[in-house]
Amino acid sequence: MPDEIRRLSDDLARDPSSLVFMPLADALRRAGQLDVALRVALRGLDRHPYLPDAHDVLARIHADRGDLERASDEWEMALRLDPAHAQANLGLGFVEFRRGDLESAERRLSTVPLAEQTPGVAAALAHVRSALGARCANGIAAVVPNGSMPAEPAAVSRPMAWTEAIASAEAVVVVPTPAAPPVAPALTTPRSTRPVSEFPSPDPTRTKQLFDSALEGSDQHALLVDGDGLVLAGAYTDAGGNDVAEVIAAELAGVSGEAERAMRHLGLGAWTSLLVEADDAVVAMTPAPNGSLLVVTASRRTPVGLVRLLLDRALARARDWLVRVS
């Protein structure tokens, strides 16, 4: 495994835009290096947001980190890009199983065509149906006079059995050829070429909490700002509890353009992120789709590495949200 990771890392270093980020992130995940795997997957998706296999890899990383909500989001994204994605259906079935919703898990796995069912999907489907049968049998036994309370089916009380089924079904991540990426028809226009005016009108009642699950403390904030300095998503309150998001967004108008001009003047290529350590806070910025700007702030005592990780998380949330509302 170390040799494989080293080889894939070298390949990605030689060509940062390569699709090798997918097998690399998955190899890191299987090696237990979840934080590094997360960073590799997020940065790769920032360059290639329409690859369902890449969202599947990111979902597996989130699942291994115990974050089923984010894992579910990524598997849902994979299915939006490829409705027949077997591994995404398997993953969502796993999430529904862990939540105790056996009927939904069975329906989910049954949607995978027989011709596309991997051994793991077939095994997982049989496992769920067995658990449903056991539940039904126990339900009947429970109403028999003088009968004792039925024990919980082993398949339900031991969710690890389902995890083992997924592990047995893990497929090698195949890097698709760049010539024919699996892009959904509605997403064929690259987001980088869409005008900012196609953004939905900001709706604070629905978007203020967009980044809450990506942040880790009350001293952290994230804002997504369009090119005109309007808040698209996120929130920012000052020490007095006042909402100052609109003021900050207005001040940030044009920052992304200035950064691009500076990089062009210096001959350094495109800018990917900017980190500022001030007296009271650490501020990180990165360009987001359609000319928008994502800003994350944290208290000065927050490690810089964590701020970068928060920026990656928030960017993944912003990217998913923009795909959904586009």
**Approximately what portion of the residues adopt beta-strand conformation?**
5-15%
Q: What is the level 1 CATH name of the largest domain?
A: Mainly Alpha
Q: What is the H-and-E element order?
A: HHHHHHHHHHHEEHHEEEH
Strand order of the largest sheet: 2-1-5-4-3
Please outline the major beta sheet.
5 strands, antiparallel
Helix content: 40-55%
Number of helical stretches of at least 4 residues: 14
Instruction: Measure the end-to-end span.
Output: 40 Å
Overall pLDDT level: 75
Number of domains: 2
Q: Classify the fold: give the CATH topology of the largest domain.
A: Serine Threonine Protein Phosphatase 5, Tetratricopeptide repeat
Within CATH, the superfamily of the largest domain carries the name: Tetratricopeptide repeat domain
Q: How does CATH name the architecture of the largest domain?
A: Alpha Horseshoe
Principal-axis shape equals: globular
Extract low-pLDDT stretches.
140-165, 167-205
What is the strand tally?
Answer: 5
Structural class: alpha+beta
Provide an overview of this structure:
The protein is α+β, with helices and mostly antiparallel strands and 326 residues long. It folds into two domains: 2-187, Tetratricopeptide repeat domain (Serine Threonine Protein Phosphatase 5, Tetratricopeptide repeat, Alpha Horseshoe); 193-325, Beta-Lactamase. Helices cover 52% and strands 9% of the residues. The protein contains 14 helices and five strands. A five-stranded antiparallel beta sheet has the order 2-1-5-4-3, sandwiched between helices. Strand 1 (221-225) and strand 2 form a beta hairpin. The longest helix has 24 residues, at 119-142.
